[in-house]
Amino acid sequence: MADVSTDLVWTRAAPEDAQGPGPWIEIAFGPGELVYLRETGDPGTVVTTTVPKWEAFAKGVAAGEFDHFAEPPVEPFPETGLRHNRKPA
Predict the structure, then answer these.
(1) What does the alpha-carbon distance between residue 57 and residue 55 come to, in Å, rounded to a whole number?
(2) Contact assessment for residue 65 and residue 71, using Cβ atoms and an 8 Å cutoff
């Protein structure tokens, strides 16, 4: 992983009335149109993307393109027994 600047200003994605340490996702915008993402429970692991990709993702979230990921699981994965909401092939 590339070095992450210590000058980044992290913004926590949490409800205004949220109490406690999370876990929450944090985002920082850095030089070179880079966007950094991390989880409060593991701040040493940072994922990097670009501003255009981040903006496309954010627009997709606002448009509901990822809502199916938030639906409750409906059937188990045969190989693990874990539950999922994917449609059978």
Answers:
(1) 5
(2) no
Tokens describing residue 30? 């850095």
Chain-centre distance for alpha carbon 37: 7
63-83: average pLDDT: 73
Residues 6+ apart with CB under 8 A from 33: 50, 51, 52
Q: pLDDT tens for residues 15-48?
A: 888 887 778 899 999 988 999 999 988 988 999 9
The strand pairing partners of 26, in sequence order, are 12, 38
Report yes or no: 38 and 10 within 8 Å, Cβ to Cβ. Answer: yes
Q: What is the pLDDT of residue 22?
A: 77
Pairing of strands 83-84, 34-39: unpaired
Alpha helices in the chain (DSSP H): 51-62
